[in-house]
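Reopening this one. Same input as before:
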Amino acid sequence: MMKNKISKIQELFDFDNKLSNGSDIVIGTDEAGRGPGAGPVFAAAVCFSDCDDENLFEKLQILNDSKQLTEHKREELFETITELEKIGKCHFSIQQGSVKQIEKINILNTSLGCMKKACEEIIEKSNKSKIKVLVDGNRQIKNFSYPQITVVKGDSKSAAIAAASILAKVSRDRFMEQISKEFPEYHWEKNKGYLSKEHIEAIKKFGPTVWHREKFLRNILQLPEKNKTQLSLF
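Same output, byte for byte:
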């Protein structure tokens, strides 16, 4: 079993190596929280400094698409990845896009903007000139001067994207659990801001909070067009 897991993580690193095309570093970036009706969106970027280290493979043997892992495994990997930076095996950055940003420039642009900031922070940390960025999904980062490749379902193909997926997901989940203490009636500690039946019922009963995304709630609240501006959260 251990050998199979290490083979899987080696496949993820091999994918990155093949796309590197002579680059000094490969950065993977992903986001978490595009779909929920409440809370900020998070994005992360990761690059590994040694993609042929068997000790690294062993530490990351359970790495995969964050959606395929249990919460416990994601938390375990989060700690592993962040510890790897301390020993010089990787660089990472985690960025947050506010509800206000999402309302102003939409969720896609906010997500891509956070990815851009995360990648730029890693580029600054690494001090490398030949950069290749792997972006999860099918949309490239806008106004970004470094070579980038979009990878559909990249969190199950690329080690760097999978690691970024973990950091973004865990960071956002922790954030939603924290703000849930202030607004317990919405049960964000369970639904993480997604519009579950329980969450929708709470919105209808108690109304939206400063953490809700106005444009995501219009159908739920069934407001006439002329009154939609009254829902402004800021």
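So the earlier flakiness isn't reproducible anymore. For the record, DSSP finds nine helices and five strands in the chain.
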